[in-house]
Amino acid sequence: MLSTGLNRREFIKISALLGLGGSVPMLGGCTPRPLPGEGEVSRVPTFCDMCFWKCAGFAHTEDGQPWKIIGNDVDLHSEGRLCTRGTAGMGSYQDPDRLKRPLLRETGADGVQTFREVSWDEALNFIADRLKSIAQRHGADRTALLNHGYGAAHFQHLMKAYGSGSIAEPAFAQCRGPRDVGFELTFGESVGSPERTDMEHSRCIVLIGSHIGENLHNGQVQTLAEAMRRDATLITVDPRFSVPAGKSKYWLPIKPGTDIALLLAWMHVLIDEDLYDRDYINRYATGFEQLKQHVARYSPEWVYLETGIDPDTIRKTAREMAAAAPATLIHPGRHTAWYGDDTQRSRAIAMLNALLGSWGRQGGLYMKESVSLPKYPLPAYPAPKSDFRAAHGNRFPFANAGVTNAIVEASIGADAHYKAWLVYGTNLPMTIPGIRPQLQAAIDSLELVVVVDTMPSEITGYADVVLPECTYLERYDDLRNSGERHPSLALRMPVFEPSYDSKPGWWMAKQLGLRLGLEKYFPWEDYAEVIDWQLKQVGSSLDEMKKIGVKNFPRTRPKYFAPKQEVSFPTPSGKIELYSQQLADKGFDPIPEYTRPEQPPQGFYHLNYGRMPAHTFGKTTNNHLLFQLAPENTLWVNPLVASERGLENGEYVRLSNPEGIVSNKIRVRVTERIRPDSVFMAHGFGHRSRRLRLTHDLGADDSELMTNVKIDPLMGGTGMRGNFVTIIKETV
Ligand code: SF4
Question: Do residue 648 and residue 573 come from a single domain?
């Protein structure tokens, strides 16, 4: 029994409190406008928050009413274009289901828990009093911030000023952490976000489990399209005939979970046939002889039995990569928490790039650069008594960021390390797999749970206090200053006044800071002052940026290595580490090994999941503009499976995992584009929160079926692809 019952919090359906019901307004609370063109039009710069890619644009209003958002032509990061979701940003601003006022949990005389709408003062005082009490009894470091998204920076600042070093985002353990650690162990640096992929110049691109075009990361889609226009060779490895697979010269429908075997076989061919970049490896790498010895046993013939990819195709594709090198990119992917050996899988991808000489070379992985932007002058943060590593214990020696699962575990019970959570912009029940009982137990144990969000996502139902943030179109955030091809700054500023009684994150962080005695860390009245000060240090100003939105700066360093340039890599050896002494010293495989994955029991299928272009997971499914494009997800099923089980295209089914957890209903899509041993669905559907009135109860949630989570021992990543499901016909 995991529940401690210390502070049992019942899930509160916010709709019950607010008395909402009836039909769902499709156009939000705003009055529909007549045809555009007759009113007073204004345009305000912003950068998009519909996903993390941060494309810059201009929001247009007419007579103060929402009109449209379009790209900013001078933004080289997005080439002046927004994707489907970006153009639908107004739909998020207009969403009638947005959180509107601060909510405080209270228990009535009958023992029933509800939310009461309260003033900002009451909500903030309540939080500050609880935090101070916890700090007095246990220390300020016992509060953790679980966060996602650009606006989280304000709360990270608050937590660091307060003396907490426990900041974690699901993006590490649940998404790109294995990739980043795998590349850091090899090159000393991660590929970053946006990824430093030089696809527009690539002559050969390998996508291994990456679905560019389905995951609409604007810049990547455009550079991939440019590579295709230039006749680059595309090789896609995927159990599913994905959108990029349909545009590829080679589609390798690999058996799920066997990627490392294929990557080692490709390295085997490159070395065996002397196709690798010998000069690059001699100059920059260490551990080649160990690698050569290691991959000798991974012949294409042996690997065929594991992957199902025939030896001839393995050899042909390796030769294609070598012929185009160094303008060959083995794409590092983004969501890489799959089978529990994912850091090693990403390391194998990094090593294959190294053999092809693509790191630091045109068409491979470029050297990124950001603007040298001074930080606003503030006192140094206090040293926290503990940080996120307190949650890890002796586990995960290569976790250089907080592991959310570990923080959840370290919050369970009366003696738990963590006593309070501040949750910003992340819907934990649908984001972290396989820990729903632990999540409930942690929430029952904590003395304080605060959730900051724009929407009544599932996690808000577990909060003591819900703080409604205004959308990105109603607030300032930090300047965009990402490391990439062209250094640039972009401005996000309010297009509208905050709707209802919502507030910007910077305001909430400051108000909490004042109540916690942290005035010296929040000397500004308005966050615009911080932005203006920073811009003036680099020869611009807020006034200028309000007109142009994006300012491009010249590079100060080359984008690629010069021929025969001496390069010191930020690894312990100063070289690209094909053999990792760091891993060997900690008792891990210094070169990736292949482990055969578990196979589904009789009658079960691999549960594969991914994205669809119209939505950023569960974050946008209630947006009325995007809802019209894609109201629910579907279950991809091979025709052989459909025939065996008597399934019709479009009929509803449910999925059950081996532990008996049954999903919400989902429509069948019968397609030959998936292997018979697998099914596929887009993530982000199956919302249980009734307050999300458009998307509630539509489609199935893959994460609730993930009870078989394989933890990556190197960095705590949560491997989610080892889950199996069977199909249950829905009886009407
Ligand atoms: S890729 Fe699309 S959703 Fe993401 S920031 Fe760019 S326009 Fe917005």
Answer: no
